Amino acid sequence: MPLPLRKKIGIVRPIGWPGFLVTLHLLLASPVFSQTSGNLKLWYDHPAGKTWESALPLGNGRLGAMVFGNVERERIQLNEHTVWSGSPNRNDNPAALDSLTTIRQLIFEGKQKEAERMANRVIITKKSHGQMFQPVGDLQLFFKGHESYTQYYRELDIQLAVAKTVYTVNGVTYTREVFASFSDRVIIIRLTANKPNRISFQANFVTPHAKSSIRTTSAKDLTLAATTSDHEGVKGLVRFKAIARIKLEGGELESGDTTLIVKQANAATIYLSIATNFNNYNDISGDENKRAIQYLDKAFARSFPDIQKTHTAAYQKYFSRVN
């Protein structure tokens, strides 16, 4: 199973560290860009809407997120670097090795065209040419009554690897912060307001995978379980699990069959974990459920300030190596 990540069918791509993602994004979008001492930010005065290229990319090498910054219906597109179609398989041409000596001899004899024709016939695979990197899906956040807003601002702080969205509704200023923590292996979404009891929203998952299940648990976790798709005759067997868990400061947390509902909180922090059954290119016997819950439990035990501090330190270790 191939590991290099790439953009395919309009999906998220983590591709290494957040700093590299940010550099890539500079080539794809045309935001207002400011660069001064201690100030590296991409900032916008409008949401991304439905435009994928305008969303802000975050990643920790394993997880990726595209933050659209939409007000009433926020979309955070997600992926994990081992979510691929298909499964371990051999796609080499069995005639290749037996023909290698003949192809070399033709080249030595100056018969380049004959060597090329033979190579195309016996070396090029007759089976699948590779698998597709696939998205996990989206975490959607719905904010009732936020249709009309003012003073909109969103940014990607390149020095901190944090995406922020700020806007005002009915005199209340709302702030969202998102980052992909390398040290804690989770994505963190923090929601606050400048007045108490104003954080109310619904959260749910959506996914393009046909073989999937979305539900909430008795502990009020929101979960997405899925298996990737078949491709070029190779059966999809990569399984993944995404879990969102919300920590409230005040307010109430309720759950429906497929939705978490936050009511009148002072602040909310969403801890998002994703894992797969992928061990290596030839082994997908891992336990995605166990991995996802282990990452989540470990991160959830920590406060937002603590986990943000650790994230910043881990990111700065690499980002600050160059000017």
Protein architecture, described:
It contains 5 helices and 17 strands. The protein folds into 2 domains: 18-87 and 132-319, putative glycoside hydrolase family protein from bacillus halodurans (Beta-galactosidase, Chain A, domain 5, Distorted Sandwich); 92-126, no CATH class. The chain has a 10-stranded antiparallel β-sheet with strand order 1-2-7-8-9-10-17-14-13-12. 20% of the residues lie in helices and 37% in strands. Strand 8 and strand 9 form a beta hairpin. Helix 2 (95-108) packs antiparallel against helix 3. The two termini are 36 Å apart. It is an alpha+beta fold and 323 residues long.
Précis, in short:
The protein is an alpha+beta fold and 323 residues long. It is built from 5 helices and 17 strands.
